[in-house]
Amino acid sequence: MDKHSIIKQITEMKVVAVIRGQHAEEAAKLSKAAIEGGIRAIELTYTTPQVEEVFKQLVNTDALIGAGSVLDSETARHAILSGAQFIVSPYFVEGVAKLCNRYGIPYMPGCMTIREMATALEAGCDILKLFPANTIDPSFIKSVNGPLPNVRLMPTGGINLDNMKDWLRAGAVATGIGSDLNKAFKSGGYEAAVELSKKYMQKIAE
Fold it and tell me: What is the C-alpha to C-alpha distance for residues 74 and 156, in angstroms, rounded to an integer?
C-alpha cells in the first residue's frame, strides 16, 4: 500500500487507537480488542517493552498498523522493518521525516505552534499530530487554517467519546484516542475494550 493510500484510509477512518502496554502481551490484547470493535488504525507505541512482538501478532490483521513514540530515525527504521505502515512522534524529528520519505511511509509528528507546523509541512508531512490536544480548544484548528490552510491535523491527547465529534466538526481529519481505551481494558478486560471501540465507531457513523 502506498503512502497516499494509507493517508486516505486514516482520514476516512477518523480514529487511530494509540496503544500503550506494560508489556507486549497486554498491548497485543488491547490492539486486538480495538480491531474487533471496529477500529482499523492502530498505533503501537515504542514505550511498550518488546513492541516488535506486538507487530508480529498483528501483521495478518486487516488493520493499518503504525508506530508511535518514535524519537529517532533508528527507531523509525526498526518500526518499518517490523511492519509499521505509518510513523508518529510526539514532536518533529527531521531525521525521521527524511527516512520516512525515503521509504514512502507517512510521518505524523506532534506539533503545537505555527512554526513547528510549517517546518513539518516543508519536510513532507501530510498529517500533523496536534499534541497534547487536551490543553487547547477545538477552535484552534480554524485559527491555524487561517495562515496555513493546507495543514491537516489529528488531535491526540485527551480525546474521548464526549469531545471527539467537536474536534472533527472543527476540522480535524482524524483523532488519536487511547487513555480511556486503556482504562476500559484495565477495569473491564478485553470485552470492555471491544465495547468502547464499538462506541467510537458508532459515533463516527452517526
Answer: 24
> Distances in Å between the alpha carbon of 31 and those of 26, 38, 93, 169?
9, 11, 26, 27
CATH of the domain at 135: 3.20.20.70
Looking at the structure of the chain, the number of domains it has is: 1
Q: What is the pLDDT of residues 14-35, one digit of tens each?
A: 999 999 999 999 999 999 999 9
Asked whether the beta carbons of 193 and 185 are under 8 A apart, the reply is yes
Query: Full-prediction pTM beyond 0.70?
Result: yes
Show Cβ contacts of residue 145 under 8 Å, excluding neighbours closer than 6 positions. 151, 171
Of all helices (H) and strands (E), which one includes residue 143?
helix 140-145
Of 3, 12, 43, 122, which is the active-site residue? 43
Residues 154-165 as b or e (16 or more Cβ within 10 Å = b): bbbbbbeeebbb
Give the residue numbers spanning the domain of 15: 3-205
Please compute the mean of the pLDDT values over residues 132-143 and round it to a whole number.
95
Asked whether 185 and 33 are in contact (CB, 8 A), the reply is yes
Residue 25 known to be catalytic: no
Catalytic residue list contains 43: yes
77-133 pLDDT, tens digit per residue, is: 999 999 999 999 999 999 999 999 999 999 999 999 999 999 999 999 999 999 999
Pick the catalytic residue from 14, 29, 32, 129.
Answer: 129
Mean pLDDT, rounded, of the chain: 96
